[in-house]
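Allow me, if you will, to draw on your knowledge of protein folds for a short while. The matter concerns a single protein, recorded as an amino acid sequence and a row of backbone structure tokens. Could you please explain, in whatever detail you think fit, how the structure tokens follow from the sequence? I remain grateful for any guidance, and I place the record below:

…
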Amino acid sequence: MASMFFSGDEVHVADDRKKEKGSKLLSGLKSKKEKMLPHHPSLGRHSALMDIVRVQMQISEAMHACIRRNLLQLVARKISQIDLPHISLELLNGIFKSDFPNEKSYMQWRSREANILEELLCIIANSMTTEVRSHVAKIRDTKQWDAAMSPSERVAVIASIRQVAMKLSSLPGKFGIEGETFYWTAGYHLNIRLYLNLLFAVFDILEEGQLIEEADDLLSIIKLTWSTLGITRKMHNALYGWVLFQQFLETDGDGLLENAVLELQKLLSAAEDDDKEEQYMNSLLCLRQWNGSELKVRLVQTILLSVTSWCDSVLQDYHLHFGQKFSNFRMVVTMVFEVGIPTDDCGEIKLTKLNASNQNSTRMLKLYVKRSTEAAYSRVASKMDLESKVERTHPLALLANELKLIAEREFKVFYPVLRECFPESMRISVFLLHQFYGEKLKPFLKGVSSLSEDVKLVLPAADMLDHYLTQLYTSVMEANNMVHSFSQDLDHYEIGEMSKPLILDWAISQHAHILEWTGRAFDIEDWEPLSFHQRQAASIVEVFRIIEEVHMPLRQLY
């Protein structure tokens, strides 16, 4: 609000067209009297946006009016520039305990303003620092400030702190950027925290995973704080992308990840800064843990590292993280290629960009496919024993069906995205699934000696999986002209070779029974037709029953 008043510029909203339906946040905000007053359209829209800011920041109408009154007094003094210490001092001087609904709110507000003053004015270690800390302690002590001190003493404390603030405000900026103040670099940690809090106001307080309708207009107001908080366009894109990304992680809201990617793309595609702005951006450092050490990393790089580190972690098991929201998978892959992946460069963190022709990119993507496939397999394999008891079937039969589903999901959901940058992904996934199941199947096949119920369940399921994976493997290689590129083919399960002796042994063992049963049917039957129209004998039904019973196991194998 202070930046808006101080700029004196009319806020240009992003969309001047009349909206059929206003934001639900504004319902009930205006009194009947306010609605009856004539307003200029732009002023009315401006007032509505300020109401949205107030509601989003959860500030009461009474406190909003109180803050507005004091800030207008500050602007009326026509000071050369506005900064956070001047704003805090003006509010401390003009807002009282009676302006708050309860003492707790009042104490929290005073403590917050005192913290701001201490963080900004105690930057330079000298005699002024001790004096400021002493005055700030008095402000924090509510009993001393409101009860023990007279109004003139409180004014003297504020005036003394203001003198220090004016001295620091008069110091030149560090890099000579137009509009730069001493506090851009000296108080940048606080500036960033405040700006992030403002950016979080674009989310609906009732549905935190959604942007409010007026998000673009709200951003136009927030951008008025750039000169006060030392925010550049690149910093805004980085911080807004970070806020969208954080809100996506918290709420999984639709569209948030896509918007975060767009903001980071703006950041990465922006024109190079001039020397002064580049030096300023490089001076804004954050502490970050890396390989057990604490490093100082540039602000923008810290944001990019945090985002791409998360992307790297979820791509290690993309079957789990994107099993429901497939569209987010493309966004994450896009972000990894745009931003890069964190690598160690002689003890320093470096972002290495990926591209389809780069060997490092191929190695990383291959690693993602292998680890995600392994993780997906491990999850289903660990549950097979329990589920087999519930389903009353053999674990290997269930496992074959589950692995087929994994392969289908890989082919239909993930492969269309990965194919653009890593055509081998499907081949690797299919090969691993085939190999994993084969390792489980071999001990079972070695123990097979007869056509038991378990064998009847496992062999058809294994054969089905073998044929399906082989079909996928072949089609993918042919589609990508890789038929002759790889000498390593799938090691088939040899279900046919295993089944032949089993079926032959079973047929031989059943031969005597078949002869005995059919012979008995001949002996006991006189073969008289049932009637002129029914020429078959009654025993033929028994013969068919025998044949059905004998050949049922054979049919179950196919």
